[in-house]
Amino acid sequence: MFRPLLLSALLFLGACGASIPDQNTASRAFSAAPDMPQMRVFSHPQATPASRSNTEIARDFLDLTFRMESGRHLKAMTRFEGPISVTVKGDPSSTLVPDLERLLLRLRNEAHLNINRTYEPDASITVMAVRRSDIQKAIPSAACFVAPNVSSIAEYRLTRRTKITDWGSLDTRRKITIFVPNDTSPQETRDCLHEELAQALGPLNDLYRLPDSIFNDDNIHTVLTGFDMLVLRTTYAPELSSGMTRTQVASRLPGILARLNPAGEKAPGPNLPYTPDEWKREMIAALGVGTPMAQRLPAAERALHIAQLYGLNDVRMGFTWFSIGRLAQRTDLDMAMKAYMNADQYFAANAGTELHRAHVASQVAALALRQDNPMLALQYIEANLPTANRAENAALLSALMLLRSEALKQAGMATDARSARVDSLAWARYGFGSERETRQRLRAMTGFSPL
Prior knowledge:
By secondary structure, the protein is α/β, with parallel strands linked by helices. The protein has helices at residues 8-11, 54-65, 96-109, 132-138, 153-159, 186-201, 226-235, 246-260, 277-287, 293-310, 315-328, 333-348, 354-370, 374-390, 394-410, 414-431, 435-446, and strands spanning 2-4, 84-90, 115-117, 125-130, 142-148, 176-181. It has a six-stranded mixed sheet, sandwiched between helices. Helix 2 (54-65) crosses helix 8, helix 10 packs antiparallel against helix 11 and helix 13 packs antiparallel against helix 14 (374-390). The longest helix has 18 residues, at 293-310. The protein is globular, with a radius of gyration of 21 Å. It starts with a strand and ends in a 5-residue tail after the last helix.
């Protein structure tokens, strides 16, 4: 599996923005000008516990564990049996190891995994830090990726599409390597660590219907959530083991989830429909970096029609409207604002979508500032700053802070505006890395110069 390169100007994620994945493969340097503020980093995880019923979570777990993104069914679940060791090789950036150590601590505390870093050359999981260009020679659309039974990109290229790197051929997991770039922003590297390590440990699938998970190709969540930690803890429950079939796992899940997640012992919500393949294809066309710009909005509109036809009245409908808003914003601001309002309506009606609404808020605030309405912008910004912080999304947080600076400036509060701009740049150093990238990305995300 791999983490796809996304249309970052669309989703505003420092990690990546959606493109076409190779769905049978399991899937981010830093510099700054001397006058830039010191980089800020996140310190205290604030993951929100899973909120759905255990009945719904059991269905999610089975679909995540026994399918791949291509739709291929897996005959048996696999996991590591025994203690899990993680080593770092290659040329890691300065923030990779601290972010990895923080992630491993979370996995021990929240998912209760027996996982530790080692300096021994042979480990269960190897994090290989290489140049982004090397990764894309192997998988052109990937920001990073994970593969079993290989130690280098050269080895992966030789064995790709063979039984050696076929996840479905594994009887258990013994040796897995994660390839992450060492010449992108700190946040992009961290986001890759979260997604690829999660897939090295557990599910290989992504589900668009999940509102509160990193196992979702919309890439709204970029660090492991409370739901994700529950999924990993369930994967390594003593009642389960490598080689078990879907039926065997399904029979044990109710008891496991009742023990691990007693708050989930409640009546389930509506049984959400599976995501139609045609909706996925149109969304890939709308967001894929290889699609000509003139074809993106029509593809998103076709995806909307499909979502309405199949009754996807959940996070998927909201994401479709949000995508239409971003694509329409280039040519039709009224259409974009309508799309954002529709997106927010669907997100608000579904639990676990606070981060989705924060992304919408950043766009509504930017449009409000273009219309000289700083108070409306501040209303949306202030309500969503805590959400971006809890989600540890420095790219989104810095964009919201820059918009706040512009709103305060328009409202005549110049001193507060300058302070907000400095705060924005401190987070941008983690979210985007270099001064040049910060300028380009923040200007694209907000319409305003960050410096």
